[in-house]
Amino acid sequence: MIEMFSYPFMMRALLVGVLISICAALVGVSLVLRRNSMIGDGLSHTAFSAFALATVLGVAPLYFALPIVIAMSFFVLRLSQNRKLHGDAAIAILSASSLAIGTMAISLSKGVNIDLNSYLFGSILSVSWADVILSGILALVIFMLYLFAYHRIFAITFDEEFAKSVGVKTGIYDAIFAAICSVIIVLGMRLLGSLLISSLIIFPTLTAMRLKRTFRGIVLVSTLVSVIAFIIGLVLSYILATPTGATVVIVNLVVFIISVLIQKIID
Amino acid sequence: MALLELTKLKLGYGENIVIKDATLALEQGDFVCVVGTNGAGKSTLIRGILGLIEPRSGKIKYGEGLDKTKIGYLPQDLRTDANFPATVEEIVQTGCLGHMKFRPFYCHSEREHVKRSLKTLGIADLAKKSYMKLSGGQRQKVLLARSLSATEKLLILDEPSNNLDYQSRKSFYATLKKLNSEQNLTIIMITHDLDADDLIGDKVIAINDGVVKITTTKEYLEGYRK
Asked: Most buried one in A176, A265, B183, B184, CB count within 10 A?
């Protein structure tokens, strides 16, 4: 096992994976408890489309996709907050349209060699040192945010209207969370793929909710579960020669099923 | 000086003006029930007072020691998730956020305030309990304790008795009366319907066709019977 981490690409995948797992779990707690978890799904498809367009246009995918996905996250946020619209239906339309635009861009491009599979299902070979640095900065930002605004994040997650009434700037926090969610998706999709990255946001929280009954407990357990499931998934994918993204998601699924069984035994 | 003064207040959403004219003054210790048909603008009025929507025109003046972030607000029960994973204490503490400014953690006096709020409502023993394990009546008291942690002056309650059975409602109203008389708290409460049993305050704010009028409960009931 030690041998596998002697390869630089594996080391980069481990570092980015662990950092993104921490970030995804922290953001996921608030998104899942506010029933906004589909936002991650919508954004991951947008990221796919942005990456495909960047490759076709011959520009750096990471720096092309980041602003597009962040801008789209604000749009999705507005859609989900608009009571007149069916937010979930709007996100579903965005997901399908983004996938279609990405696929069309790839199919219409001539002479550009694009590995569609690596965008959809991820590839640990595509993770660069720039991704490691960005992931580290992102993890630091989220850690500081939770350290200094934990009680405000809790209040918004539990009851946004009340939080607003006591002066919490909920719009700013929503925008920060949407932007962070975008960065997680853009960085994480190269590793896990656009079809699988949103599971990293959802699964750990759902698992933690079976095991803990307090917000603080869920934040801590989901972070721990997310990191452990990623490391197990990465190691298994190396040993079994399976795709990393799919293996990580299956490990998360198994952990979730175990947590459901534990909850049933406890109750 | 009045605790809360509204002058020619106009409130609405988009093109729709819901409250056309609200002019009234409330003193410390008033207990006011807000009545009106569905869609009359009861919630809009209190959202305006809370600063959740900006007035189209007119003025809201808060009395000494009060500002919009120091009002204890109890939203409708449906807004919160009964299965939310949190302890009672975690929830009640969020009432103190309006006093924190940029400080990231609750200070000693805020924690003590939370303890007092829980004690006042007789639920100090629930502090470490999980919110999802509580009954409907207990959850309502927890949310009221959160509102108490936010204020020492003014409570605003949006249809607080909606999902309570008869006994729980009676007990909840008794608690409100006690808070009003013993702590001299001003209370503004939206009532679900025009049942006289719900008009437990000494004044009534009636909203009709966007126009807001304040009378004593006695006068209001006499007018209503006629």
From this structure: A176
Least CB–CB distance from A214: residue in B85, B94, B146:
B85
**Whole-angstrom distance, CA of residue B70 vs CA of residue A263:** 40
Shortest Cα distance, chain B CAs vs residue A185, angstroms:
26
Contact call for B130 and A149, based on CB within 8 A: no
Whether the CB-CB separation of B11 and B44 falls below 8 Å is answered with: yes
Instruction: Give dist(CA A184, CA A58) in Å, integer.
Output: 23
Interface test with B, best of A162, A219, A266 (most B CBs within 10 A): A162
Measure the CA dihedral B151/B154/B158/B159, to 10°.
110
Tens of pLDDT, residue by residue over A60-80, are 888 888 899 999 888 887 777
Q: Which SS3 state, helix, strand or coil, does residue A2 take?
A: coil
Whether the predicted pLDDT of A86 surpasses 80: no
Q: Is some CB atom of chain B closer than 8 A to the CB atom of A165? A: yes
Higher pLDDT, A187 or B118: B118
* Token pair in block for residue B54: 């900006």
Give the model's pLDDT for residue A34: 86
A129 touches chain B (CB under 8 A): no
**C-alpha B205: how far from its chain's center?**
14
What is the span of the domain harbouring residue A173?
4-266
d(CA A127, CA A104): 25
Is the pLDDT assigned to residue A39 strictly greater than 70?
yes
Q: How far is CA A126 from CA A3, A68, A149, in A?
A: 20, 20, 34
User: pLDDT of B81-118, one tens digit each?
Assistant: 888 999 999 999 999 998 888 888 999 999 999 999 99
Contact across the interface for A151 and B93, Cβ inside 8 Å: yes
Q: Coil, strand or helix: which one is B17?
A: strand
Direct distance between the N- and C-terminal alpha carbons of chain B, in angstroms, rounded to an integer: 35
Mind telling me how many Å the CA of B115 is from chain A's nearest CA? 17
Domain count, chain A: 1
| Tokens matching residue B80 | 């919160």
- Cβ <8 Å between B90 and A159: no
Query: Which pair of tokens denotes residue B129?
Result: 């309990």
Q: Residue B128: its chain A contacts at CB < 8 A?
A: none
C-alpha closest to that of A81 among A92, A90, A93: A90
Please give the DSSP secondary-structure letter assigned to residue B152.
Answer: S
Please check whether residue A159 touches B, CB under 8 A.
yes
Q: How far apart are the first and last CA of chain A?
A: 38
Length of chain A: 267
CB count in 10 Å sphere of residue A170: 15
Closest by alpha carbon to A151, among B139, B110, B75, B143?
Answer: B110
Q: What is the CATH number of the domain that holds A50?
A: 1.10.3470.10
